[in-house]
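sanity check this record:

:::
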Amino acid sequence: MSESHSAHGEHSHGSVKSYVIGLILSLVLTIIPFAVVMTGAMATTPTVLIIVATAVAQVLVQLVMFMHMNTKADEGWNFMSFVFTITILLLVIGGTLWIMHHLHLNMMIG
């Protein structure tokens, strides 16, 4: 059995090895923020930064390992989808952090 399956114009559909690596990375990137929050070992700012960093990494792992998005020039729509996803990811995460920061400032009792 070959390492990767090709169909529909020779597009790669991945291999068992790439799916297992993606699964392991996804599990690790889920356990890290869970452990940081549950242990309460860190202050608020480093905890939020760890959660954001692992969330971004999780999305990238999902896109590359499971959805097989890459930056090959011959797959223009694939690249455009990747750029669109990164743009939306930055907007959503950046907007969320901005709103949370302003809520924190406005809710401070002083």
Observations:
- DSSP finds three helices and two strands in the chain.
- The mean pLDDT is 80.
- The longest strand covers residues 6-7.
- The helical segments are 16-39, 44-66, 76-107.
